[in-house]
Amino acid sequence: MVTMNDVARLAGVSKMTVSNVVNNRAGVSDPVRRRVLEAIRQSGYRVNLSARTLKSGRTGIIGLAVPEIRSPYFGHLAAHVIDEAAQRGFHVAIEQTGAAAAGEIEAIAHSHTLHFDGLILSAVELDRADPRLAGTGYPIVMLGEQDFGGRFDHVAMPNEEGTKAATAHLIDQGCRRIAIVTGSALKGVNVVTRRYQGYLAALAERGLEPDPALLFTIDKLTMEAGRAAAHRLAGPGREVDGVVAVTDTVAQGVLRGLADRGLRVPGDIRVVGFDDIPEAEFMVPSLSTVAPDHRWMAEKAVELLTGRMSAPGRETGEYTAPFELRIRESST
Amino acid sequence: MVTMNDVARLAGVSKMTVSNVVNNRAGVSDPVRRRVLEAIRQSGYRVNLSARTLKSGRTGIIGLAVPEIRSPYFGHLAAHVIDEAAQRGFHVAIEQTGAAAAGEIEAIAHSHTLHFDGLILSAVELDRADPRLAGTGYPIVMLGEQDFGGRFDHVAMPNEEGTKAATAHLIDQGCRRIAIVTGSALKGVNVVTRRYQGYLAALAERGLEPDPALLFTIDKLTMEAGRAAAHRLAGPGREVDGVVAVTDTVAQGVLRGLADRGLRVPGDIRVVGFDDIPEAEFMVPSLSTVAPDHRWMAEKAVELLTGRMSAPGRETGEYTAPFELRIRESST
DNA sequence: TTGTAAGCGTTATCAG
DNA sequence: CTGATAACGCTTACAA
């Protein structure tokens, strides 16, 4: 491996001068600078980040923990975070939590152990009351899902408002028996409960009675589970004319499950999702959905994290992404 | 920050003994080991990876460069690579190349600069003849797409065989005017040309004449482009009864585009894709596709890369993933 | 403007 | 079995 010493010898200067050139510091004469740069080019020298890190105590790496990178929503989000971090000179190492509290705790420990400069955690199961969350002052930004009650910087989804708008839209389209397909964790404050609240709020506002028979819970927020829920929902004697799916991925499963049963969307049943994944526009029928501003979220999360790195004691903030309701075929 | 020294002082032993305990090395008496472990627990000590890296010269990080992490295919692949690397004690840092040769070259340089232990590169544009590819002995494994003629370890897709099987399947279903929707880079040896060859081979084997009017090229392998191609393809006087799409993502666009034009799949036109992304099963209609063994590919890539790290001089190998043809609604 | 010395936290080596 | 010492490549502080 080519080191600074090698370059220094080649250029006939000291290690320190090479360091100064590499870091664009003032106080190096032009001829010397040129000689050093030439030596660097010739030798193919590259700074050793580990060595630099050892001195500075920073790795330049941000951890990003998501349930599953393969899911379109998190892939999409990750892409934005990577871009945004790159702009601020950080690299992103991705961790998969498997959508389980244990995985989420582990991601924190891991990020810590690897001395990442901070962690953006998209937690979906971890509870604000989890004892393993003992605050260590390590920079963590919670992204999008659970609510941790002011304990961490938090970039939230417009869970309640968005679902309320989507549900109201279905009502406006004439739906009267609107099912919701959502996760089974209906306690606590999390993405599932918040969106459920939004659904209830829209019903209440429009004077519709919530019907327990219209609540379809699933264990995992996957396409498979959405499909299975649609099968249950399309069973005899339900008379459902609208479906609010907790995520677009679930909605995609619902669309598929309704097709399995020969039900037409939007003819027989209208469907809305949440997230606006890139695929939503290309589904058949195209999916109406709540579109939070993903880029905004990624920017905010990275901004908060870098802010916290430099000012660890700062008060935590809570930010909710703006959203639009994108109306497509599935609800019109 | 808690260091080994702190732990050593706390346990009343030397730094070296702590190191031995941390690394599970033999030659530490049980009582001392216990004392040290207790001191580690109390102090919250974590090894400093940078320091270890500085000594060992290895970072424990593998770079993974893909065109776009948000695309389902690459997200899926990345998930497998991350899992497989984790099993071998490596972390994965993801780089996005934007599906451009410049981005791919940059990913190599970047991986180098950051002293990642190696790079898995899913190149789609970089040419085997690119002068910037001057061999430096840095461990690189090419994944899935371009063919680099023995210059690198290469885990290839079954491009030709897979597309041939898919096309033959359409013919067996009675299709006679089979269009192909593929990229515009029809020169050189790459994913587009290889799959086109497979398409031609199937036609030849079944005695069908290739018709230039049935070749629809697109600039980027996206859903949008697939949709636009479907619109062209469904124009007046084409009489197309089958479509081979170069990837599932493109196929999803094609399905959407055909729906736009009121054509029914498989009633009017049959469609097959390539990749078997998780969404394929949930499209409406569900998509018939070539399913390469993604896990196998990820395993092989990581295995080759770690192999090359320990034996840099070894001959390069070329491996092609096994595949299955998954027949679903879109072609039956 | 350039160079020298010390040390970041860890581990390999070798002595006790 | 345990410990002292010297690196790994770089940067900070200071001296020339």
Which features would summarize this protein structure in a list?
homodimer; 332 residues; alpha/beta; 434 Repressor (Amino-terminal Domain); Rossmann fold; 3 domains; six-stranded parallel β-sheet; six-stranded mixed β-sheet; 12 strands; 17% strand; DNA-binding; Peripla_BP_I (chains A, B)
Brief sketch in words of this structure:
The structure is a homodimer of 332-residue chains. Helix content of chain A is 41%, strand content 17%. Chain A is built from eleven helices and twelve strands.
Describe the overall structure:
- 2 copies of one chain form a homodimer.
- Chain A is built from 11 helices and 12 strands.
- The first copy, chain A, has a 6-stranded parallel sheet with strand order 2-1-3-4-5-11, sandwiched between helices.
- Chain A is of the alpha/beta class.
- The mean pLDDT of chain A is 90.
- Chain A has 3 domains: 4-47, 434 Repressor (Amino-terminal Domain) (Orthogonal Bundle), CATH 1.10.260.40; 59-157 and 294-323, Rossmann fold (3-Layer(aba) Sandwich), CATH 3.40.50.2300; 159-291 and 326-331, Response regulator (Rossmann fold), CATH 3.40.50.2300.
- Chain A has helices spanning 4-11, 15-22, 30-43, 49-56, 72-87, 101-113, 159-172, 191-205, 223-233, 248-260, 294-310, and strands at residues 61-66, 91-96, 118-121, 140-144, 153-156, 178-183, 215-218, 242-245, 270-274, 288-292, 318-320, 323-326.
- The N and C termini of chain A lie far apart (63 Å).
- In chain A, strand 8 (242-245), helix 10 (248-260) and strand 9 (270-274) form a beta-alpha-beta unit.
- Chains A and B meet through helix 4, helix 5, strand 2 and helix 10 of A and helix 4, helix 5, strand 2 and helix 10 of B.
- Chain B binds a DNA duplex (16 and 16 nucleotides) through helix 2 and helix 4.
